[in-house]
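Field: COMPLEX_INPUT
Field: COMPONENT_COUNT = two
Field: RESIDUE_TOTAL = 467
Field: MODE = joint
Values follow.
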Amino acid sequence: MNLPTLLQDQDGVLSSILNALNGQDHGIRKFSLILGSRPPNTSCAYKWDCISPLLQNSLISTFSSPQLKYLQVESISDLPLNWIQNSQLKHLHLTDIWFDVTSFEALSQNCLQTLECLQMTTADSIKGIPMAALASLNILSSIVLTKEQLAMTWEVMKTAESSLEDLSIHFFGTFLTWGERFLLLIFFLQEIPPPATQEFDFTKLTNLKCFNLTYTLSDDNGSSAIIFHPNLSNIHGYLNFGAPLSSLDSVELLINSWIDGLNGDITVPQVDELSEWHLLDNLLTSNKFPSLRNVDLTYSIAVLVGDDGAFNEAGFKEEINKFFATALPMLHASKSISFTLATFIACLKWDEVGVEL
Amino acid sequence: MALSFLNLPPEILDLFIDQLETFCEQDARAAFQSCNMVCKALQGRARHHLFKRIMLLTRKGKDFSRRMENLLEILKPVGGVLVGIAQYVVALEISIGQHTLLITTVPLPG
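Field: COMPLEX_OUTPUT
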């Protein structure tokens, strides 16, 4: 049964379920409504107006219930915003959401004062929510694919600069196989590389304890040398704040890269060739991070191969683990550091028809 | 007087039942189902664990509509008073739709 049929034919049952769970003396505290997973900016999200008034009313009652503390909604467009007026939410997770612009004006700046955690997939999902409502955020997570989403993320960070304790910024846009890049161009019509320099003054985040950065390398040449000489200078520039960030206790860094194994063996270079890793090592052990204790580094590598058996994954992982045990000597000596390697193998085969992804 | 676990204060009994949650999910569920059937003293806390989270997920080959109707049946209040499992439900997840166009190839944050 597809989504429109289900929501139209079963609206009475769904509505009754929600009403039964939100009685006078009780109510659900956590609610997730996930209407399929679609790429953002494709106008594929399910339109709010296509949901029957009966079910709309039950959903709005659930969203605005003072009992509800956690709300996750995904893939709905033209979602009205009036329900946030009396909401007592602590955690809001928005994925592929567009709010109804006609419902913005009546909103009070004082709404959502209880909100502590906001997850945005992507950052423009919050268009319409008054910025003042986000001033008490402790936790912010943002996925950034466009410049507009990046600007929106900076704006939220500025609003919550005195309360933010846990910040996650994820740049995913450029880590794509050829087929995915093609899809990206169709759906988004734009892609941006992660910024190489800091555009926000992180030192204003005076309570920031944990910073989680996902950085996607944008090299077009995915040779085996490139993944170890990536634009780490860009990551260095991004983390090189203007002044010490004295509250920061933990940095989690996820680096996405890819490697072309189509034309031969994949080799891991020696540590002494890798000056850019030493830059990162020096920075994270410098006086710009006086309270830093924990560093989690995850390296995520997509490996393009022409044959299923052409890549010795176990041997490759062993080499890389040895490499990182020695590539960051000062971090290993002075901090609690963990390293995780994730490999994704993409088999790229040519046949008479074309390429198989 | 014979000793019985029923002589324990109900708060202590609840703590014992809560500890079952440390089992793996399948074993914990079986244990809560057993407690639910033993006696009324264990029933409330066991049901709290069994029904605190409800997920309505569309899956290929499953009759989603029928499952929703069954759920509604056991949630319905009788005479305006809550009976059944509605009072125990804390979290509801409704997930409907195809997941066919996920572009990202790296693990998304949880």
